[in-house]
Design the sequence.
């Protein structure tokens, strides 16, 4: 909820890109994914399913990985890898799937003109 409040105060946008490259955890088609998200009342922008690794990786994800490389190698290692892109469109941080949205709030404050009480 605090992340949603922060989003409202700052104009932060949360973008989700379904991907089926990690244990085939996102097998549905676009309509099934949209229904799943709608049923759960998601509060972020949900895009079409894409690839984030390999020769078929979406150009946005190629850019994100180039700008914010990973530990050991640049490939996305698992679902829910997160990037912070500042308000000028520059990728400034990369976070592992284990990083919670709450943990990211303090980092987000550096790039957006707002403070959130945790």
Sequence:
């Amino acid at each position: 909820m605090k992340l949603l409040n922060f989003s409202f105060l700052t104009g932060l946008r949360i973008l989700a890109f379904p991907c089926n490259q990690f244990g085939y955890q996102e097998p549905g088609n676009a309509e099934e994914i949209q229904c799943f998200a709608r049923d759960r009342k998601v509060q972020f922008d949900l895009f079409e399913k894409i690839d984030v690794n390999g020769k078929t990786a979406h150009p946005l994800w190629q850019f994100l990985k180039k700008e914010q490389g990973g530990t050991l190698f640049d490939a996305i290692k698992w679902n829910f890898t997160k990037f912070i892109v500042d308000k000028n469109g520059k990728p400034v941080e990369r976070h592992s799937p284990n990083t919670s949205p709450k943990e990211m709030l303090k980092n987000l404050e550096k790039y957006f003109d707002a403070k959130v009480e945790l």
The mean pLDDT is 87. The helical segments are 2-10, 30-39, 59-67, 101-111.
